[in-house]
Amino acid sequence: MTSVTFPVYLDGKAQPTPGKHPFTVPTKALADAIAAEWQAHKKFAPSKMPLTSLAYTAIDRIHGQEAQIIEALLVYVDTDTLSYRATSSETLAQRQQGEWDPILAWAGKKFGARWEVTSGVMPLQQPKALHDSLQKYLQTLNAMRLSAACLLASGLSSLALALAVLEKRVDAAEAFRLSRLEEEAQAERWGRDADSDGRAQRLKDEVLTAERFLRLLDAP
């Protein structure tokens, strides 16, 4: 990873990753934030050290495997949450249209290809031009940004929203809210469930962490 220049010092010493690679990151801000996680917890605990986890993933699992990672991300093109509109509630369908269409319109303009939408759950195959354009964009991302992109796409069930966060079109909190319009509509109708809310909060925390990771990558 030739662009990575800042070693992460743990207990005053430069340490390797679990995969025995040099533990270095692109910015001092990210290195300092990761070191702070270690100072707080001393021993690696993925759930408590999310920035470390993202960096480890980039270095040990993504670097050198970018093509395979991009291929996995492109699966979200045809399954993107924003493409599938509700059929059981006209109110929800209208809300999805009003809040999701601007994101897809932005993505269409940004990447030069239309993102199609459908009602129901039948699979929708997006245009080849969209796949090709998004592939070219993802190929411009380094391993660190791809690590964050994977976490965003998974947490949001949406590559369109992940790209909107990557490109600072929306912040992560807003992207997460948009990704859960249907779940929130169900909660409003049937009542909240503590287990579901707990899972949602964990997903939100992951999405917010990915955004923080990206901002630290942009810092001096």
Give a topology summary.
Blueprint: E1 6-7, E2 9-10, E3 13-14, E4 24-25, H1 28-41, H2 50-62, H3 66-79, E5 84-85, H4 90-111, E6 118-119, H5 128-138, H6 143-156, H7 159-166, H8 172-179, H9 181-190, H10 194-218
Parallel strand pairs: 5-6
Antiparallel strand pairs: 1-4, 2-3
Helix pairs in contact: 2-6, 3-5, 3-6, 4-7, 6-7, 6-10, 7-8
Keywords:
220 residues, mainly alpha
Description:
Helix 2 crosses helix 6 (143-156) and helix 7 runs antiparallel to helix 8. It is built from 10 helices and 6 strands. It is mostly helical. Helix content is 63%, strand content 5%. Strand 5, helix 4 and strand 6 form a beta-alpha-beta unit. The protein has helices at 28-41, 50-62, 66-79, 90-111, 128-138, 143-156, 159-166, 172-179, 181-190, 194-218, and strands at residues 6-7, 9-10, 13-14, 24-25, 84-85, 118-119. It is globular. The strands form 3 sheets. Strands 1-4 form a two-stranded antiparallel sheet. It has a two-stranded antiparallel sheet with strand order 2-3.
Given the structure, what is the number of helices?
A: 10
Strand arrangement across the biggest beta sheet: 1-4
Total strand segments: 6
The helix-and-strand class reads: mainly alpha
Mean of all residue-level pLDDT scores: 92
Low-pLDDT runs of 5+ residues are: none
The percent range for strand residues is 5-15%
Shape: globular
**Measured distance between first and last alpha carbons:** 18 Å
Q: Tell me about the largest β-sheet.
A: 2 strands, antiparallel
Instruction: Evaluate the radius of gyration.
Output: 19 Å
- The portion of residues assigned to helices is 55-70%
* Secondary-structure element pattern, one letter each: EEEEHHHEHEHHHHHH
